[in-house]
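Email to the structure team, subject: Enoyl-CoA hydratase model.

Hi all, the expression group asked for a predicted structure before they design truncation constructs. Nothing fancy, just the tokens so they can compare against earlier work. One-line instruction: predict Enoyl-CoA hydratase, return tokens.
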Amino acid sequence: MNNHYECIEASITGKLGLINLNRPKVLNAINRQMVSDILSVMEDFDENDQVRVIVLCGNGRAFAAGADIDEMAADDAIDFELRNQFKDWDRLARIKKPIIGAVQGFALGGGFELALCCDLLLAADDAEFGFPEVNLGVMPGAGGTQRLTKLVGKTKAMEWLFTGKRIGALDALQFGIINRIVAKEVLMEETLKFAGEVANQAPLSIRLIKESVLKAVDVSLDEGMQFERKNFYLLFSTEDQKEGMSAFQEKRKANFKGK
Ligand code: CAA
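Reply from the structure team: attached below.
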């Protein structure tokens, strides 16, 4: 793995692939290089058998305070179109392994969008989410209006997007945006523990559960049920299904291999 990235730090610890957003002087503002770095590492992790769960966090006092305003302030619509500005974000939606985010401080604009791309989120008690784009005369462009609405419904999504108002950790928990609030000092410890639990599950189960749950967000119940069923069948062709069920019958702990 290439360990030298301009805007992030990446490492592997046991079964976890860690990505740390690393532009703390600008509160991890997300420039194009950072998105490209994140995707390059995530795709490596996705193909690496050692890695079972990806953990995403931010260095310094923020998760990420949004897209880099300085980088885009002078852009026009055609610059975005020609550059296909959000192509790396589309790749992010195709990562197969679970992504667990650890949010401390600000997760605003593109930072909130990045958090919404995670499958599970832990947040420190000081976490603040929000879409302040409206204050800049723009709007979210990396999925914010879509993912937030699908998650919390139209009413709160409109309110938060119209006002740019920040959402504290407690509200985020109440509206199902995050899984857990933990004290800031133990955010990483708790996130790694949580990620470790997921990493010990049968990897192919986790992979197909992720695919099926994400499918549910987009399709009718009937279509989703058909999709789920095929994935359920598929798991019966894995060694881990035989191992998991034998372990149950033999009253021992299963040892999953991801095959
Ligand atoms: N882009 C570029 N630089 C940023 C940034 C951003 N999104 N957010 C913070 N910074 C920089 C600041 O300019 C400042 O740099 P200098 O020290 O060189 O002045 C540094 O980070 C520290 O920030 P502040 O001094 O402003 O810190 P603060 O604690 O007073 O305020 C804040 C924190 C409320 C998050 C404030 O920085 C802020 O409002 N940031 C912008 C948030 C925002 O509007 N995000 C949406 C961006 S648009 C977007 O994301 C579009 C999309 O959908 C893809």
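The domain at 8-200 is CATH 3.90.226.10 (2-enoyl-CoA Hydratase; Chain A, domain 1). DSSP finds twelve helices and ten strands in the chain. Ping us if the truncation boundaries need rechecking.
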